[in-house]
Backbone:
């Protein structure tokens, strides 16, 4: 459970301290007063990532050189406490991580100390925008579930960077294969792992989203690789076949870094033919499916809800709130508090926040 949060020079906050308890917390205030930044800081402490597109300098308050985030986690059963701390400068080159005042060298040892699932208006981009948003979503989701996938993804991306760097140099077609092969071998080995996990989790999440849409609608989520390969040999062959094209373009033109995920409703591709309402509801169901999967793996899940319930009909609104009963904590942002039994015992912070 998240019991305390401290921010310094993060986004628009000079300094802020908040206390949390189990159950529901509401951050209440007009748009633009910094409520979403609080959710972003909690998400960042969980995954060292933002749910919004951002560069390191965007996190640091204007005029400052670095930000500080701290969280106190409390085990509800044992009473044990754990302190997480992140310090990062505006250029992103210097980041310090610590747990209980002990410096942590690897980010993999820091992330997942608690599980947070975000529900935000930006989620619509997962369904409706470019393939990179969908790959990013599934890469984060699957990496949280599998260290094997995370390692394969890191190895693939590192090898891809090196392969692309070589392609930008003046190298003859005759010698390119021998130079690229060590990196292609890593990419091929990793790609097989990545594809298998993407297929698996597309089916898991797709099934859950289909259930949320209900039998009156036919929803499907299809993993659509951009390369026709089933094993390492296939990948190596395709890389070799594309040498001339890749040299001309100076980048790798085939591989799992270009994969797509297709969201279809009643046979129609949502990013092309979906209405704004269908896209909005699908993005919410996608996060609800992620939340359900997270609860299956970890009983202590924090739900972060950034004012996404305003346009829901009564059936889906109640479905959403009933799901959140499984969260250890739910933290909402609202411009105006909703009159609902769900929020009758909520702890409310009014923003701009000046202290308890």
Residues:
């Amino acid at each position: 459970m998240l019991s305390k949060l401290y921010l310094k020079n993060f986004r628009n906050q000079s300094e802020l301290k908040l206390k949390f308890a189990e159950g529901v917390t509401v951050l209440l205030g007009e748009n633009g007063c910094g409520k979403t930044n609080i959710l972003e800081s909690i998400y960042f402490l969980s995954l060292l990532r933002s749910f919004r597109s951002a560069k390191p300098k965007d996190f640091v308050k204007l005029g400052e050189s670095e930000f500080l985030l701290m969280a106190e986690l409390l085990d509800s059963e044992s009473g044990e406490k754990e302190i997480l701390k992140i310090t990062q400068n505006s250029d992103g080159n210097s980041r310090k991580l610590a747990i209980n005042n002990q410096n942590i060298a690897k980010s993999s040892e820091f992330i997942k100390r608690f599980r947070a699932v975000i529900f935000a208006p930006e989620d619509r981009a997962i369904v409706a925008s470019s393939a990179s948003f969908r790959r990013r979503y599934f890469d984060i989701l699957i990496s949280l579930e599998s260290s094997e996938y995370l390692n394969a993804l890191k190895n693939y991306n590192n090898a891809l960077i090196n392969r692309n760097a070589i392609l930008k140099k003046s190298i003859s077609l005759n010698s390119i294969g021998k130079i690229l092969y060590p990196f292609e071998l890593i990419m091929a080995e990793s790609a097989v792992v990545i594809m298998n996990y993407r297929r698996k989790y597309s089916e898991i999440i797709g099934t859950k989203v289909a259930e949320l849409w209900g039998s009156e609608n036919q929803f499907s989520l299809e993993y659509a690789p951009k390369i026709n390969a089933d094993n390492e040999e296939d990948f190596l062959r395709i890389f070799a076949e594309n040498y001339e094209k890749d040299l001309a373009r100076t980048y790798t033109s085939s591989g799992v870094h270009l994969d797509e995920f297709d969201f279809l409703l009643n046979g129609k591709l949502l990013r092309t033919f979906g209405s704004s309402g269908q896209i909005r509801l699908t993005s919410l169901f996608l996060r609800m499916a992620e939340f359900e999967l997270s609860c299956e793996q970890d009983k202590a899940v924090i739900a972060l809800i950034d004012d996404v319930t305003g346009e829901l009909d009564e059936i889906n609104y109640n479905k959403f709130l009933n799901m959140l009963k499984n969260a250890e904590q739910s933290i909402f942002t609202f411009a105006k508090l909703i009159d609902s039994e769900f929020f009758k015992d909520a702890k409310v912070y009014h923003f701009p926040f000046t202290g308890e």
The chain has a mean pLDDT of 92. The first helix runs from residue 35 to 47.
